[in-house]
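Renewal narrative, Specific Aim 1. Our central claim is that a sequence can be written position by position from structural information alone. The example that follows is taken directly from our test logs and has not been curated for this report. It begins with the C-alpha cells describing the chain, in the order in which they were read.
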C-alpha cells in the first residue's frame, strides 16, 4: 500500500538555526580525473598569478593530458610504480622537476570566439593547429592505464604541487624506551627475594619455637596480603584463619628444598634459594563452619574433612571442620560461607560464590567460554607445568555455573520460590520506553487523536545463522534436553512451537514459483539453507527486538532448516499478543524481507478462518505496517522502496529498524562456545546473555534517549531550514504546486520518473553545440541594449566588456603556461586584446557624456588587462554621493542581478552539456586512442562551465560588496566547487536520498521575471518577451532534468521534515514513559517487601534491625527483603536521574507540560 501520504503532524516552531556549511572537496579529490581513462585533468596551482580573479575563481584552470584508453599487453607491466613514474618523467619536458609541464594541450574553444562553430561529427578534431604533441607517444602503449594514472598522481604531488609535503621515506625513529619504564625491572626482580635479611618472623608477638627439622621451611610470605611480610608457619596460619584462599610462599634453599634429588644437591649453587608456593592446608590450617571461621566447640578434630574448592585465585585444597551444634546439613553450612557444593551428600568439591560471579562477569562482558576461564584458573594454581597433579573439576564446575545462572535469573526477577509456575517472559528484563497500557501510559491515552504515532509498538526481526548447534549422536539426558527457564525466558513456548508447526503446512512459508527479484537475494529468503545444515541440529536463531533494541520476551526461536515464515510468525506472535491484550492496536514491523513477508501475514496469523489462529484479534482489528530496514532497503528494487521504506512511511519517525543487527554483532562471539552445548544449556546460556544485553540497554536508556532527543531537535531544525531555503528559491507558485502534488501522490513520487530524464543523441549534441556557441551570452544585454536609455545602455555594455576582459585575463594565464605555443594562439589573444581596448575607449567616451562631472578625474582607457572599467560600484559610497551617481549605482546593481541570473542559466546549460558529453565519451569504444569528437565536445563544455563561473564570480563580487541586501533578496550565493554538480552524477548517486545533501542552489534558483527588476525606462514586458522565446532542445532537456530533480529534492526534504517531527514527538512520549516505568518498578519491589511481613515498620526503626519483625522472620526472608530494598533504592536513583536529565534537555516548562498527563503532578 502507498506510504507517502504526509503525516498530519504539524512541524514545531524551529527554535534554533544550525548552520550547514558546504564542505569543499579535498585536494586529493580535486586532482583526480572523473572520466574513466579518457581525460586525466590536473589542476594547476598558479601561484605566480597576480590577478585577483586567479585567487577568487572557484574553478581552477585545467591542463588535460590525453591517455590511451586500452594499451597493448605489456610483458613488463608488473614493474614498480617508481619505474613507471621515471618512465613518464623521462618522456616529459627536461625541466619538469622544477617547472610546469611543457607538452600539454588546451581545449580548442578556449581561444575561439563566441561565433566559432564545431566541425562535422565525421571529422576528427585536428591536433596540430590547437595543441602541442602529447607527452605520451606511441611507445607508451605498453603502459597500463591504471599505472599511468598512478604515476601521474605522483607527478602532481612531487612537481605541480610543491606546497604539499612529501612523505618521509626514511626509517621511522625508534620508540622511546622510557615508555616501558625500564627502571621498574630491578624492583620486579627484587620482589622475588626477601626484602630484609636475616629472615625472621615479622610478628612481634610471635612465640613460636625454632622447628626441630632443619630441612623444612621456616619462613613464609603471602602474595595476596598487603606488603608481603615474612611470617613463620604458625603465624601464617593464624593470620589466614579467615582467608583460606590465599597462596603462601615458603623460602627454600639447598637444605630445605625437598624436590631436589640427592645427586643434584652437590651441584646447586651456593646462593641457591627461592620462594615456593605451598598451600595453607599443608601448613595446618583448619577452617571452621558455622562459627565465623572458628572451630565449633562440639566438633572433634577427627570430624574434619578435606575439600577441593575453586576460587578466583585458583584451585585450593582446604580442611574444613563442620559445626555440630547448628543442626544444619553440610551443604547449608557450606552455602553459609559462600561455597557452592558440587553435591549435597558428602561434598568433596565446591566453588566459591565469588568465582561464580567472576566467571559470569567474564562470560557476559568478554564472552569468555567456560573452558577457557577454567584453564585460566588452573594456570593461576600452577603455571609451571605441574598441572597433572591438579584434580580436574571442570565437569562439576560446568554444572554449578548452570545452576547458579538459573537461580540468579529467578532472584533478579523477584521470585522467592523456583517451584512456582513461570509466567510468559517473567524472567526477562523489559523495555521501559515501549508503550504498556496500565504501566507507563497516561490514563486517557486512548482518547489521543495521534495515538497511531504516540503509542505505537515497533518490532524488528532478523535471523542469525552463526548461533548454530551441532547434531549429537547420543541423545541428551532429561536435564540437558530442555531448558529450566520454561516459558519465562526469551524462547517461544516449546508446546506452541510444536503445535503450530504440526498443524500448519510448509506451503505457508512462501508460494512456490514466486518470481525472483532483488528482494529475494539475501539470507532472509525462506529458501536459504546454510552450508553444512545436515550436520546441524540448529541452523540459526530468529529474534525480535523493539525500537530501543531490547530483545522481546518469547521472541526468539531456533531454526532447524532455513529461515521460514512460520518461524518468524511465532517470534512476532509473542510480543504482538502481549501488546494487543494490553490494549495497543498500532504496530510497525521491520524485517529484511518485509515487502514479501507482510503480504499474507494477517491471513496466516490473524484470520479466524485459518488453520491455526496464532494472533487472535477478537477485541478489534490490529493495524500493522511492514517496512524494510534502512540498511537492507538498498538491496531491494525501486518499487519496493516506494512502498516499504521507513523514510517515506508516516508515523514511524526516524526509526532505523537495524537494531537486531547490533545484537548479533555481540552475540556472534558465542557461536563457538554454544554450538557444542546441550539443548537446554545452550538456551539458558543465550538467555542469560540476552537478559544482560537488555539490562545494559536499561542502564543506558536515559542517556541514549537524551542524546537522541538532542540530535532529533537539531536535525529537525536543519531539515526545516533546508526546506524553507528550497521553498524560497523555488518561489510561492512552484512550492504550492509541488505541495499539492505531494499531498495527493503515493510512494512512487519518491522515485525518478524516467520519462522526464531524456538523453540526447550524439547527433543532437553536435547540433546543440553549434547553437550554444553561436548564442550571444547574457539575456539582459541582448534585450536591454536595444533600448534608448543612455544609463542602461552604458551599464549593459560595461558589464559585457567586463566579462570579455575576464576572459582575456584567463586566456593570458593559460597561454603563459605553454613554453612552445602554436602561432595561431598568440593571434587570437591579440585579437581579443584589441576588442577589449576598443570597448574601453567606447565606454569612457559614453561615460563622459552621461556623467560629465567625472571629467575632472581625467580618466582614460588603460591597459586592457588591468583597466578597472570605471562604474559606480568601483567608487566608495561617499564618492558616489559626492559625484551624484546614486541613480546610476541603482541601475548597475539591478542589472548585475540580471546578469547573475543569466550566467546561472548559462552555467546550467553548460553543466547539462557536460553531463551528456561525459556519458557519450565513456561509452566510446576502447580502441579509440586519438582525440575524438566526443572528447572535443566534452572539453568545450568544461571550458564553458569555467567561463560561466568566472563571469558569475566577477559580477557577484561587486554586487555583494555594494548591495548585500539585493543578494539576499534574490537568493544569490558565492559559487562553490560542490555547487557544480552534474545532473547525471546526481541521478546515478541518488543524492536526493541522502540526508543533509540537498540539490545545489544553482538548480533550484527560481526564474527571474521582468517585474523583479525595476529599471527605470525599461518596460516590464521587455525581459519577459525575451525569456518567453522558444527554448532549444538542449535547454528543454536540461530544464526537464532540473524540474525532475527539484521535485525529488522537494518531496524528500518534505518527508525528512515530517519524519524528524514525528521522531521528536515519539521521544517526547518515551521520556515520561521511562520515568513512569521506573516509578512502577519501585512500587513493585515495595509490594514484594510488603509480602514478607515487614510492612508498616515504625518510623524510629526505619532502616534499623532493631524492630521485632526483623528478628522474627527467617534469615531467607531477611535476605529477600534486603535484596528488594536494594532494588528500591536503585530504581529511585534511576528515576531521579531520568527526571533531571530529561528536564535539562527539554526545558523546565516544556518538561512539566509533557510530564503532567503521565504523573498527574
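The sequence written for that structure reads:
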Amino acid at each position: 500500500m502507498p506510504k507517502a501520504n504526509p503525516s498530519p503532524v504539524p512541524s514545531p516552531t524551529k527554535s534554533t538555526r544550525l548552520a550547514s556549511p558546504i564542505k569543499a572537496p579535498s585536494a586529493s579529490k580535486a586532482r583526480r580525473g572523473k572520466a574513466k581513462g579518457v581525460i586525466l585533468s590536473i589542476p594547476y596551482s598558479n601561484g605566480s598569478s597576480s590577478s585577483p580573479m586567479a585567487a577568487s575563481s572557484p574553478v581552477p584552470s585545467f591542463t588535460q593530458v590525453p591517455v590511451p584508453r586500452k594499451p597493448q599487453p605489456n610483458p613488463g607491466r608488473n614493474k614498480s610504480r617508481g619505474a613507471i613514474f621515471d618512465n613518464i618523467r623521462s618522456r616529459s619536458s627536461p625541466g619538469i622537476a622544477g617547472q610546469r609541464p611543457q607538452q600539454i594541450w588546451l581545449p580548442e574553444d578556449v581561444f575561439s570566439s563566441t561565433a566559432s562553430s564545431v566541425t562535422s561529427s565525421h571529422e576528427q578534431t585536428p591536433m596540430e593547429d590547437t595543441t602541442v604533441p602529447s607527452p605520451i607517444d606511441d611507445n607508451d602503449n605498453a603502459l597500463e592505464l591504471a599505472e599511468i594514472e598512478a604515476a601521474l598522481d605522483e607527478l602532481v604531488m612531487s612537481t605541480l604541487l610543491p606546497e604539499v609535503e612529501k612523505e618521509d621515506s626514511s626509517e621511522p625513529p625508534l620508540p622511546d624506551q622510557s615508555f616501558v619504564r625500564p627502571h621498574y625491572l630491578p624492583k620486579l626482580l627484587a620482589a622475588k627475594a626477601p626484602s630484609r635479611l636475616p629472615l625472621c618472623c615479622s610478628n612481634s608477638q610471635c612465640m613460636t619455637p625454632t622447628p626441630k627439622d632443619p630441612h623444612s621451611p621456616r619462613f613464609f610470605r603471602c602474595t595476596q596480603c598487603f606488603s608481603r611480610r615474612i611470617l613463620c608457619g604458625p603465624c601464617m596460619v593464624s593470620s589466614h584463619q579467615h582467608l583460606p584462599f590465599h597462596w603462601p610462599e615458603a623460602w627454600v634453599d639447598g637444605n630445605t628444598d625437598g624436590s631436589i634429588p640427592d645427586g643434584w644437591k652437590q651441584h646447586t649453587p651456593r646462593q641457591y634459594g627461592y620462594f615456593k608456593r605451598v598451600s595453607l592446608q599443608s601448613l595446618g590450617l583448619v577452617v571452621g563452619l558455622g562459627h565465623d571461621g572458628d572451630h565449633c566447640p562440639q566438633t572433634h578434630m577427627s570430624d574434619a574433612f578435606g575439600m577441593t574448592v575453586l576460587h578466583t585465585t585458583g584451585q585450593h585444597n582446604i580442611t574444613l571442620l563442620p559445626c555440630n551444634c547448628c543442626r544444619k546439613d553440610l551443604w547449608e553450612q557450606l552455602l553459609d560461607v559462600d561455597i557452592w557444593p558440587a553435591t549435597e551428600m558428602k561434598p568433596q568439591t565446591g566453588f566459591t560464590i565469588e568465582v561464580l560471579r567472576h566467571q559470569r562477569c567474564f562470560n557476559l562482558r568478554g564472552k569468555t567460554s567456560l573452558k577457557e576461564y577454567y584453564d585460566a584458573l588452573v594456570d593461576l594454581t600452577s603455571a609451571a607445568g605441574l598441572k597433572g597433579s591438579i584434580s580436574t573439576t571442570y565437569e562439576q564446575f560446568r554444572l554449578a555455573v548452570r545452576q547458579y545462572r538459573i537461580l540468579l535469573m529467578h532472584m533478579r526477577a523477584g521470585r522467592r520460590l523456583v517451584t512456582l509456575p513461570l509466567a510468559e517472559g517473567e524472567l526477562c528484563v523489559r523495555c521501559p520506553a515501549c508503550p504498556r497500557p496500565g504501566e507507563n501510559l497516561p490514563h486517557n491515552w486512548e482518547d489521543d487523536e495521534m495515538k497511531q504515532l504516540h503509542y505505537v509498538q515497533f518490532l524488528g526481526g532478523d535471523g542469525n545463522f552463526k548461533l548454530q548447534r551441532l547434531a549429537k549422536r547420543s541423545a541428551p539426558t532429561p536435564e540437558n534436553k530442555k531448558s529450566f527457564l520454561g516459558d519465562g525466558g526469551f524462547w517461544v513456548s516449546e508446546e506452541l512451537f510444536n503445535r503450530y508447526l504440526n498443524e500448519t503446512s510448509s506451503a505457508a512459508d512462501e508460494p512456490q514459483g514466486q518470481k525472483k527479484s532483488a528482494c529475494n537475494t539475501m539470507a532472509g529468503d525462506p529458501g536459504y539453507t546454510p552450508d553444512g545444515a545436515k550436520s546441524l541440529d540448529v541452523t540459526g536463531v530468529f529474534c525480535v527486538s523493539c525500537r530501543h533494541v531490547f530483545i522481546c520476551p518469547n521472541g526468539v526461536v531456533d531454526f532447524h532448516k532455513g529461515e521460514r515464515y512460520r518461524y518468524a510468525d511465532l517470534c512476532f506472535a509473542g510480543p504482538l499478543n502481549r501488546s494487543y491484550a494490553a490494549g495497543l492496536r498500532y504496530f510497525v514491523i521491520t524485517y529484511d524481507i518485509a515487502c514479501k513477508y507482510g503480504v499474507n501475514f494477517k491471513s496466516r496469523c490473524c484470520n479466524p478462518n485459518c488453520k491455526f489462529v496464532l494472533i487472535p484479534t477478537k477485541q478489534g482489528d490490529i493495524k500493522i505496517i511492514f517496512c524494510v530496514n534502512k540498511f537492507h532497503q538498498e538491496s531491494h528494487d525501486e518499487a519496493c522502496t516506494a512502498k516499504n521504506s521507513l523514510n517515506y512511511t508516516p508515523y514511524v519517525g526516524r526509526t532505523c529498524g537495524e537494531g537486531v543487527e547490533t545484537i548479533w554483532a555481540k552475540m556472534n562471539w558465542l557461536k563457538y562456545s554454544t554450538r557444542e552445548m546441550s539443548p537446554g544449556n545452550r538456551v539458558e546460556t543465550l538467555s542469560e546473555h540476552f537478559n544482560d544485553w537488555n539490562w545494559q540497554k536499561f542502564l543506558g536508556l536515559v542517556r541514549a534517549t537524551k542524546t537522541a532527543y538532542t540530535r532529533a531537535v537539531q536535525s529537525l531544525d536543519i531539515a526545516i531550514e533546508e526546506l524553507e531555503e528550497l521553498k524560497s528559491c523555488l518561489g510561492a507558485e512552484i512550492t504550492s504546486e509541488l505541495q499539492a502534488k505531494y499531498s495527493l501522490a503515493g510512494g512512487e513520487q519518491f522515485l525518478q520518473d524516467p520519462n522526464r530524464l531524456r538523453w540526447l543523441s550524439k547527433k543532437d549534441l553536435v547540433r546543440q553545440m553549434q547553437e550554444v556557441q553561436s548564442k550571444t551570452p547574457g539575456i539582459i544585454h541582448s534585450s536591454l541594449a536595444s533600448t534608448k536609455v543612455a544609463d542602461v545602455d552604458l551599464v549593459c555594455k560595461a558589464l559585457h566588456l567586463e566579462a570579455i576582459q575576464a576572459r582575456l585575463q584567463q586566456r593570458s594565464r593559460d597561454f603563459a603556461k605553454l613554453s612552445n605555443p602554436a602561432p595561431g594562439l598568440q593571434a587570437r589573444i591579440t585579437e581579443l586584446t584589441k576588442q577589449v581596448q576598443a570597448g574601453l575607449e567606447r565606454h569612457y567616451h559614453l561615460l563622459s557624456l552621461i556623467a560629465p562631472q567625472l571629467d575632472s578625474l581625467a580618466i582614460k582607457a588603460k591597459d586592457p588587462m588591468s583597466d578597472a572599467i570605471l562604474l559606480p560600484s568601483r567608487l566608495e559610497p561617499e564618492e558616489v554621493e559626492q559625484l551624484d551617481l546614486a541613480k546610476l549605482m541603482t541601475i548597475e546593481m539591478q542589472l548585475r542581478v540580471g546578469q547573475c541570473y543569466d550566467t546561472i542559466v548559462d552555467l546550467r546549460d553548460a553543466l547539462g552539456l557536460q553531463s551528456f558529453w561525459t556519458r557519450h565519451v565513456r561509452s566510446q569504444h576502447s580502441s579509440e586512442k586519438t582525440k575524438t569528437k566526443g572528447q572535443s565536445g566534452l572539453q568545450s563544455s568544461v571550458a564553458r562551465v569555467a567561463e560561466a563561473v568566472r563571469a558569475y564570480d566577477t559580477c557577484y563580487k561587486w554586487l555583494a560588496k555594494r548591495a548585500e541586501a539585493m543578494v539576499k533578496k534574490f537568493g544569490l550565493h558565492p559559487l562553490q566547487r560542490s555547487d557544480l554538480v552534474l545532473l547525471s552524477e546526481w541521478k546515478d548517486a541518488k543524492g536526493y536520498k541522502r540526508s543533509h545533501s540537498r540539490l545545489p542552489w544553482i538548480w533550484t534558483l527560481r526564474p527571474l521575471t521582468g517585474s523583479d527588476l525595476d529599471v527605470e525606462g525599461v518596460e516590464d514586458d521587455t525581459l519577459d518577451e525575451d525569456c518567453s522565446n522558444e527554448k532549444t532542445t538542449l535547454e528543454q532537456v536540461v530544464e526537464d532534468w532540473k524540474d525532475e530533480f527539484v521535485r525529488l529534492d522537494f518531496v524528500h526534504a518534505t518527508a525528512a521534515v515530517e519524519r524528524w517531527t514525528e521522531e521528536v514527538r515519539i521521544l517526547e512520549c518515551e521520556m515520561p514513559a521511562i520515568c513512569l516505568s521506573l516509578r512502577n518498578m519501585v512500587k513493585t519491589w515495595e509490594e514484594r517487601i510488603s509480602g514478607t511481613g515487614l510492612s508498616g515498620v515504625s518510623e524510629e526503626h526505619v532502616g534499623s534491625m532493631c524492630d521485632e519483625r526483623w528478628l522474627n522472620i527467617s534469615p531467607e526472608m531477611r535476605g529477600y527483603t534486603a535484596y528488594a530494598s536494594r532494588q528500591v533504592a536503585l530504581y529511585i536513583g534511576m528515576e531521579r536521574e531520568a527526571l533531571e536529565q530529561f528536564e535539562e534537555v527539554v526545558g523546565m516548562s516544556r518538561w512539566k507540560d509533557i510530564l503532567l498527563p503521565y504523573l498527574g503532578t
